[in-house]
Amino acid sequence: MIIYTISMPAPHSHLFHVRIEIMRNETGDVLLSLPAWTPGSYMIREFARHVQEFQAADNEGRPLPWRKVRKDGWLVAAGTATCVVVWYKVYAFDLTVRTSHLDGTHGYFNGANVFMYVHGHTRESLTLHVDPPSGWRVTTGLAPLPADPAYPHRASFQAADYDELVDCPVECGTHRVLTFSVDGVPHRIAIWGYGNEDEARLLADTQRIVEVQRRLFGELPYRDYTFILHLTDGRGGGLEHRNSATNMVDRWTFTDQYERYLSLTSHELFHAWNVKRLRPAALGPFDYQAENYTRLLWFVEGATSYYDDLLLVRAGLMSEERYLQKLADEIVQLQSQPGRRLQSLEQSSFDAWIKFYRPDENSINASISYYLKGSLVCWIFDMAIRARTNGERSFDDVMRYLYQRYPVEGPGIPEEGAVLAAIEAIGGSDGGLRELYEQYVVGVEELDYAAALAVVGLEPHWQYRRPRHDSQPPAWLGINWRKQGERTVVASVRSDGPAYVAGVYADDELIAIDGWRVNEERLNHRLLERRPGDTVRLTLFRGDALIEVPVILAVAPYDMLSLAPVAAPTAQQVQMRAAWLGRIV
Length: 585
Known about the structure:
Helix content is 28%, strand content 27%. By secondary structure, the protein is an alpha+beta fold. Helix 9 (372-388) packs antiparallel against helix 12 (432-442). The longest helix has 19 residues, at 199-217. It is globular, with a radius of gyration of 27 Å. The mean pLDDT is 97.
């Protein structure tokens, strides 16, 4: 038996106090480790750097010798002790969905940040005691245990094993809790912070999201569900868990930016099916000390990104027009990344640990997002399946097929061939879908957006965001800028643009064009006066050196897209579009 107790006696210190009691019937050393990463966020983050004041003793309180054996491992010389107790503190002052945060207003923690695991005992059931300050409540997705009269402020929970303990974040404080049920399954929203939220609207819309996702899969895969919602000053993000999610949005999101909350909530909830139950075999059981590689992140994140907004349309929470504009914007975003010609979806998935969470000025040229391209590729597969089956099947059926084929208690989705096999099982195995898979998932072929749009009676209309007055193509430098105080600085240089060839660098500061001082706005106006093929002289500071770089301007790529109905859609196209985007009553 292993019992974890976490307390926060001095919240302003930002220190969680952790105690682990290990009852055992063997002798010898006890090895404990703190995870180096947290599931759902694929980067080594070295959580052990926040541990301090580690101690160990036996059940009689006699100190036991210990030593660190690696950066995240503590070895206790336990001898014949039948009970080993360790204590330590964890500094927690990083307010993100994947870390932990303790201050005078609340205590939020992810298990991977604060709870060491005992090697050889991660499959055992565990007990968690949470001792918050007086007046604070405790909310988590873990199964509650009966209250102990001896500890009136304590909240206790049961976890089936260490994986479940880590996968159920905990919110402690004076937060509000809103509740609703779907199919008799209780759901709650724990809200820390205040802003311009409308609680009744938030509650009703969140319930609608749950209902439409349950409709897609046919069931709710959990006994209850907890949304932990942090209202902050500008920070954002989300992280999925097996029967909960932590979402963080700006506190003033709930008027003109309300769809951000809806999209984020839809995305993280969808993960309760796709990645938490329907998961790649490589993602569990976890190795918490090292990278867990998979080439399928494009599917678990890409399919989830495809459905997050699509299901809002079907739920009546987003208009078809708005959804199509967002789809168009995603296409523009991918087409603006030269890295799409170099890195495949499988490669992007595998290299998430070293690339996706560590972008730099060259990322746009060398890589793509498995979220973004994965979503677009799932959409293209959806359109292809609908076309090949005359609308009788869709990517919805692929998701259901995989969900039934690879249950949570099984080994997970095999790395090689399983997703393609499901797509062919639903859409046909004559080779057409396999070719798309080889081109778009394994390879780096350009996506055929027009063919996919035609299935539902739409067509792309490419335009320029800043057109010339004479309707000729505008001139282009191929530079992305950022403001740095009062300065305009090169953020990145596109490898398919003329500035890259001319030798403009990231971090160069823009001073002038052709001898005239400019900032980004003025530069854009000056470029509209030039034509492709013209040479301009950029004056830049590179460090402390003032330099001049001549650049031969190129034809600008289109940077704006709208998706419009074809002039005379067929009855089948109209039917396909209604089935794709139709609201579920």
